[in-house]
């Protein structure tokens, strides 16, 4: 099966610790780019929901 060409770029800044933790966990499944792409697509399609964090203050606007 041929995949669709990726034509747009999306980026954001995170702390070095958050980046390292994401890459370490994501590479257990595939490349971290593949996991990030799937997360973005799943969220856009309504297949992914985000729960408020329990260990730090949530960004309230995400959970209203």
Structure commentary:
This protein is mainly α and 64 residues long. The protein contains 2 helices and no strands. The protein has helices spanning 16-26, 32-44. α1 packs across α2 (32-44). The longest helix is centred in the middle third of the chain and has 13 residues, at 32-44.
Summarize the entry for a quick read.
The protein has 64 residues and is mostly helical. Helix content is 38%, strand content 0%.
Query: How would you state the average pLDDT, rounded?
Result: 86
Helix content: 25-40%
List segments where confidence is low: pLDDT < 50 over at least 5 consecutive residues. none
Order of helices and strands: HH
Main sheet overview? none
Q: Globular, elongated, flat, extended or rod-shaped: what is the shape?
A: globular
Count of strand segments: 0
Tell me what portion of residues adopts beta-strand conformation.
under 5%
Radius of gyration: 14 Å
Q: What is the distance, rounded to the nearest whole angstrom, between the alpha carbons of the first and last residues?
A: 39 Å
Number of helices: 2
Computed structural class: mainly alpha
């Amino acid at each position: 099966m041929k995949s669709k060409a990726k034509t747009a770029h999306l980026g954001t800044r995170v702390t070095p610790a958050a980046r390292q933790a994401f890459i370490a966990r994501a590479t257990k499944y595939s490349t971290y780019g593949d996991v990030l792409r799937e997360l973005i697509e799943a969220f856009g399609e309504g297949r992914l929901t985000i729960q408020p964090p329990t260990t730090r203050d949530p960004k309230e606007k995400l959970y209203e």
